[in-house]
Amino acid sequence: LHSFPTRRSSDLWYVVSAVGVAALLGWLTTRSRRWLGFVVGVVVLTCFSGALDVSRTVQGSYKVELFSSQAQQLGASVRDETPRDSIFLTAQYANNPYAALGGRRIVLGYTGWLWSYGITYAERETDVVKMYEGAPEAPGLLQKYGVSFVVISNAERNDTGYTVNEPFFRANYPVWKTLGDTTIYQITNR
Predict the structure, then answer these.
(1) Burial environment of residue 139 by CB neighbours within 10 A (0 to 12, 13 to 18, 19 or more)
(2) Following CA atoms 122, 165, 172, 74 in sequence, which dihedral angle do they give, to the nearest 10 degrees?
(3) Is 2 helix (H, G, I), strand (E, B) or coil?
(4) Separation CA 126–CA 155 (nearest Å)
């Protein structure tokens, strides 16, 4: 098992500096009325900027789309129509709808996160490239990782780490589902 990252030194520096700034502001209030006014102004500005950010969030004017409607449909289809132990071969999505919405395992997650947790993934990443490129060892690798479904969408097509060999999958595996720019091939007959 991999452990979670430990505290970074920048976290500790923030705590130490916050205490130092508070002490400085407290000391300044004892110097004169002019400094007291300055400190009150700093505190009011700091609170106002935080309140402004919170009010924007509460009003709902700050929205970020995590999953498109197509991703939501695909996630629901995966959740409702595939076995729970299915494994999906996908591109590196930071928000993978097959894992997050469909509840299924994936061969390789977003390497930016894997790296941050200290997980070694180089061999698996190389194998993903071979599988998507339809290399001679691709069928064996699909079996090695227990891949049930292979996703080919614009995310996979535009991944700069490999080239997707769609004719390889089209010739060797049945299409399980097509939606928009996404085609999912069924690898195993479960």
Answers:
(1) middle
(2) 80
(3) coil
(4) 18
Which of helix, strand or coil describes residue 68?
coil
DSSP letter string, 131-162? HHTT-TTHHHHHHHTT--EEEESHHHHT-TT-
163, two tokens: 């080239």
Q: pLDDT by residue (tens digit) across 93-139?
A: 888 999 999 999 999 988 888 888 888 999 999 999 999 999 999 99
Q: Are 83 and 101 in contact (CB under 8 A)?
A: no
Beta bridge partners of 183: 152, 178
Ranges of residues in the chain with a pLDDT under 70 are 1-11, 61-62, 189-190
